[in-house]
Specification:
alpha/beta; Rossmann fold; five-stranded parallel β-sheet; binds magnesium ion; diguanylate cyclase activity; EC 2.7.7.65; Nucleotide_cyclase; diguanylate cyclase
Length: 450
């Protein structure tokens, strides 16, 4: 995994040392000698990770971190604070300033690279999400909410799990569990899972791997509890995809700070994902009927025609028009007209295969695309739709007679070499024929031409 790392330290030897080790692992390294230079380089060079010394003249590491995290352009860069002091109060101060992790000087290579890999993996995912978010022109990025959350605490046995859960107080709600199967089953309902991987009688890492690989819980942050001197387990846990580790003996303040960081990150990623889903849907769907929109239908039709031209399977299309729709609007008003369009779309959908595509083409015009279908099958499907619509009238406003709706349709099968206009022109002329010869019918473009 190659990435750009910004090393910030007021002592040149320290910077050189970290640079040599990171370069040896093929990381690109930038250096800054103080907090101000760090902020400038973070803006101009967009590093993927910042290793930040705590003790520096001018603005110290805590303040630098706070400013990085307050700035939208640099907020998402993971920050690892590097400190000579292994004071828990410092760790908490750092986590509260928004630091993603801590390393103690002298920096241990194995620990360094395990942390760096883990944070870079996370950043890749977040960058991808943010990029797609921007491409889809979503609203401004959500602000990360700061709150508690539901935490699943998994220990080797019930008393151990309870003790661990008891270290988490307000605003978190903790549930203690000691059966890994129960934990895997429950995991999807929580904002964070804390797993004790320090007990040799209990294979917590296996649980972490399982939760990570299951689609339903892949996004759940995991915080692993390790023995302070057990570097091997710590590295294995991080490489397995655990988001963070905390060492025994556990300090309640540090536990809360780390839990908060993970939950905040998850909430942020979830919001991005939700908005992305929404905007993806909005880009392809017609808001009134829930069918696809014209643009999407045309692009799918194009794809299918390309496939046919390349020797692939056939494709047919039907153009549909609701008969005398203007009369419905004029007689009952637009609200009823809209309700008819919705009900009409639902009936239409109920007669189609899962692979067929139904789109609102505009107004009261619709298109159906039948991938893999020759004209005979497409005619049958369009006929089913016609019958389903005509079979039963649609509800009218209170006290008025239900509205009988019919449709006319023209069906055409694509010929190799057709472009979208060719195919739709034939379907449209069949539709015209259907209208001209009395409506409420489906016409095959080939028969019409013959
Ligand atoms: Mg220093």
């Amino acid at each position: 995994m190659s990435a750009r790392v910004l090393v910030v330290d007021d002592i040149e030897t320290n910077r050189r040392l970290l640079e040599a080790r990171l370069s040896a692992e093929y990381f690109e390294v930038l250096q800054a000698a103080d907090g101000h230079e760090c902020l400038k380089l973070a803006q101009s060079h967009e590093p993927d990770l910042i290793l930040l010394d705590v003790m520096m003249p001018g603005i110290d590491g805590f303040e630098t971190c706070r400013r990085l995290k307050a700035e939208p352009a640099t907020r998402h860069i993971p920050v690892v604070m590097v400190t000579a002091l292994d004071q828990r109060s410092d760790r908490i101060r750092g986590l509260e300033a928004g630091a993603d992790d801590f390393l103690t000087k002298p920096v241990d290579d194995v620990a360094l690279f395990a942390r760096v890999r883990s944070l870079l993996r996370l950043k890749l995912v977040m960058d991808e999400l943010r990029l797609r978010h921007r491409e889809r022109e979503c609203e401004a990025e959500p602000d990360a909410p700061l709150q508690g959350g539901a935490v699943l605490v998994v220990g080797a046995d019930a008393p151990g799990a309870e003790r661990l859960a008891a270290r988490l107080c307000e605003p978190f709600t903790a549930r203690a569990v000691s059966d890994p199967r129960e934990a895997a089953y429950l995991a999807g309902e929580f904002d964070l899972m804390i797993v004790d991987v320090s007990n040799p009688r209990f294979d917590g890492l296996r649980l972490c791997a399982r939760v990570r690989s299951d689609a339903a819980t892949r996004q759940l942050p995991i915080l692993a509890v390790v023995e302070a001197d057990d570097r091997r387990t710590m590295v294995r846990a991080l490489d397995l995809g655990v988001n963070d580790v905390i060492a025994r003996p556990i300090d309640a303040g540090e536990l809360a700070a780390r839990a908060r960081t993970q939950i905040r990150r998850k909430a942020y990623a979830d919001t991005l994902r939700d908005r992305l889903d929404e905007s993806l849907e909005m880009a392809v769907k017609d808001p009134l009927t829930g069918l696809f929109n014209r643009r999407y239908a045309l692009s799918r039709l194009n794809q299918a025609l390309d496939g046919l031209a390349a020797g692939g399977e056939p494709v047919s299309a039907a153009l549909i028009d609701i008969d005398h729709f203007k009369r419905i609007n004029d007689t009952f008003g637009h609200a009823t007209g809209d309700a008819v369009l919705k009900g009409f779309s639902a009936r239409l959908m109920s007669e189609l295969r899962a692979v067929d595509i139904a789109a609102r083409f505009g107004g009261e015009e619709f298109i159906l695309i039948f991938p893999g279908a020759q004209v005979r099958e497409a005619m049958e499907a369009a006929e089913r739709v016609r019958a389903a619509v005509a079979r039963e009238p649609f509800p009218a406003p209170e006290g008025r007679e239900a509205i009988l709706v019919t449709l006319s349709a023209g069906v055409a099968e694509a010929r190799p070499g057709d472009d979208v206009e060719d195919l739709l022109a034939r379907a449209d002329s069949a539709l015209y024929e259907a209208k001209a010869s009395g409506r409420n019918q489906v016409v095959d473009a080939k028969k019409k031409a013959a």
